[in-house]
Amino acid sequence: MMKLTPIALGLLAAVAGTGVQADELQFYGRIDYSITNSDSGSATHDGKSGTTMENNFTRVGIRGEVPINDQLAFFYRAEVGLNGDDQTKDTVSSRPTYAGLKHTTLGSIAFGRIDPVFKMTKGFADAFDNYSTKHDRLFAGDKRHGDSLEYRSSVFSGVQFGASLILEDDYYNDNDPRKDNGNYQLAVTYGDKKFRHSNLYLAAAYSDGVEDIEATRVVAHYKLDNWTFGTIMQQSELVNPNAAGYEGRDGFGYILSTTYKLGGWKLKAQYGEDDSGTGKIAGRVYGKHGDSIETAPTVSQWALGAEYFFSKQLRLHTEVGQFSVDDYSEFDDTVTSVGLRFDF
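Structure tokens predicted for Porin:
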């Protein structure tokens, strides 16, 4: 029998106290763990080499919507990550938690810890998102932030606009130079990222200071029969004066991906490259060598993988990929992984 923690009991009691109907509240989650082998650890989630267990963002949460009138509704989401892959006592971590108002024609506005619009333009163009071969190993722009406001317009002829803003006075310390950045993002999307109503998804976004970068991103994803073809292209510049070598961390990155469905299988391949010095692997290079680096290292990647769907909820996934770091071969990494994912 499942035991409820005091936090869970309090959360359920709070929801019950609002008078929300059961059909307006959704409890959901995902369990996703992998056994991963890494040569150097430069590409893994926690930086560990050898054979390890990786937590691919296992989470549980609640979300719902409460109508206020015919045009206006209150919506909410409260989600936490569950960390069972190591010996840490921090078994719960922060994930999207926010509340907002949605109007049928004016769009929605939310506040809290939110996935910003720049990040979410990626759609599903990254065939290896959530795993150690994902695009953020090459270039930045895949984090969520607290102290955030987000606006999304209604969808007009397949087009939607979005904007995110960090409340910098709360987010940063008083003397942090990053407060001088704009700390906002703008985005526009076209089509359907899940290919339910359209076979084409396009997006463009701009970020000024959020996640310490000024960046422009373009995304395209296309479905043709059992095939999909995707790309994310990004020009990035680090704008954190406190970061090692920040004035030289400026450049271009991209990924190219394809998938093919064959019965219960989905086969995947991806290639990418970046010379901006803003991604996770480059960040680990700078973490070791600091300001001695004169030119941002170029990081390149290839990956192959497959998923087998036992059902809509349960899948087996496996990935193999290799990262090469110019002039810093100690950060080259070959990653192989096999895992299970269950959605509910």
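Helices lie at 6-17, 117-120, 168-171, 280-289.
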